[in-house]
Amino acid sequence: MRRSSLSSMIPFMVLFLASVMSGEACAHAFLDHAEPRVGNKVAGPPREVTLWFTQKLEAAFSSIAVTGPSGQRADAGKARVSGNQMSISLKQAGVGTYHVNWHVLSVDTHTTDGSFTFQVGP
Ligand SMILES: [Cu+2]
Question: Does residue 7 register a pLDDT over 80?
């Protein structure tokens, strides 16, 4: 009885190992670079922020939120996705530190998120 229940589990163990191994091979969508560049300082407020990822994105489940120097929302609405690139327009929010928070679903069905800052000022 004990022996047969163990052998009946083997197909599931094989499936589990296969899914773990394929998960390791999966790249996810990580931030490759951004404009304005991560941690960088730009002279004037940019009209938009663009992020490039290591994989193509699913537009319906990918978003960016940008907050300006005084903590106010600085993005002007919905992010635009094209392939592995996502952009969002900015409102005029003055000089100081901007926080960019992103959340994406890549075409491999995995979600990733992260944040970075850039500075606006002389
Ligand atoms: Cu993935």
Answer: no
What sign results for the dihedral spanned by CA atoms 87, 91, 100, 119? Answer: positive
Give all domains of the chain, ordered by start, each with its CATH number: 28-120 (2.60.40.1220)
**Residue 26 alpha carbon to ligand 1 centre in Å:** 5
Distance 10 CA to ligand 1 centre (A): 26
What does the pLDDT look like over 32-62, one tens digit per residue?
A: 999 999 999 999 999 999 999 999 999 999 9
> How far away, in angstroms, is 80 Cα from ligand 1 center?
21
